[in-house]
Amino acid sequence: TVQNIIKTGKMDSRVPPSLTGDELDELTQLFNGMLEKIETLITGMKEALDNVAHDLRTPLTRLRGVVEMALQSDADEHALREALMDCAEESERMITILNTLMDISEAETGVMKLNRTQTNISVSIKEVAELYEYVAEDKGITISVDVPERLAGYVDPNRITQVIANLLDNAIKYTEKGGKVEISARQVEDKIVISIKDTGCGIAPHDLPRIFERLYRGDKSRSHRGLGLGLSLVKAVIHAHGGDIDVKSKIGQGTDIRVSLPLNGNPAMQTWPQTKHRPKS
Q1: 147 with 111: CB under 8 angstroms?
Q2: What is the DSSP string of 165-184?
Q3: What is the pLDDT of residues 110-155, one digit of tens each?
Q4: What angle, rounded to 10 degrees, do the helices at 157-173 and 230-240 form?
Q5: Contact 78/24 with Cβ under 8 angstroms?
Q6: Residue 171 burial by Cβ neighbours in a 10 Å radius (0-12, 13-18, 19+)
Q7: Which CATH number fits domain 1-112: 3.50.7.10, 1.10.287.130, 3.40.50.1220, 3.40.50.300?
Q8: Pairwise CA distance, residues 183 & 128, whole Å
């Protein structure tokens, strides 16, 4: 069987265990475990390539169209400069797609490198909220933040900031003028729980089970520009941290997304007295 696996490259085959409990049986189990890991990596690579081919087609088509129009026209310098800017924009879009897909694939296959450090997650949440304050103001949306002065966790600060930013961006994007977005965080037993709740349009029941799939875009999201990769990346990063994510949503009432992160057996984390930040609108 081993020779057949090596010869054919069929990673879905396994060596039958002898169940004798001896060294040979242990070696067989280790070999099968290695095959499972290799199979997972290969599957991830294939899916990533499929996604790249699918999602790069649109910007590449636009890029080619802009170049062909510029070459065939008698445009002046200003028009040609605009064409070059369009090309640069589409190129940047392709780089973003590739980087995001790579991040998702690395996280899903267990090879994403996390630079974990003792991080005050409250500060990360406040910084992201402040960054999106102007976007919310333009839409007439109120953002409120309710977190402790300090909420320490052993996480990759850049990745967690990326998660919070993606979730807040979505909440603002799908909330109408006059709506609210509430961000809160607490330590609950041995977990840190982050909640982002909005009063937006909500997610349809038939879309809810699929929102974390790569490139999937529900009925409401098709009217907004995006890659369809944001929530996939969020889930992948959270799972890479050993955490979980839960979504509750009702059409016309809004969405509540809760992220839970383990403290990973580190020394007891302390939380200081709660401080509520005045809503920003």
Answers
A1: no
A2: HHHHHHHHHT--TT-EEEEE
A3: 677 888 999 999 999 999 999 999 889 999 999 999 999 999 999 9
A4: 150
A5: no
A6: buried
A7: 1.10.287.130
A8: 10
Domain with CATH 1.10.287.130 in the chain: 1-112
Q: How far apart are the first and last CA of the chain?
A: 66
Residues in the chain: 281
CATH superfamily of 117-276: Histidine kinase-like ATPase, C-terminal domain (3.30.565.10)
Confidence of residue 266 (pLDDT cuts 50, 70, 90): very low
Residue with tokens 């910007």: 59
Q: Which two tokens stand for residue 174?
A: 């799908």
Average pLDDT over residues 223-228: 44
pLDDT at 267: 34
Q: What is the spatial distance between Cα 239 and Cα 235, in angstroms, rounded to a whole number?
A: 6
Token readout for 14 is 């396994």
Helix pair angle (230-240, 77-108), 10° resolution: 30
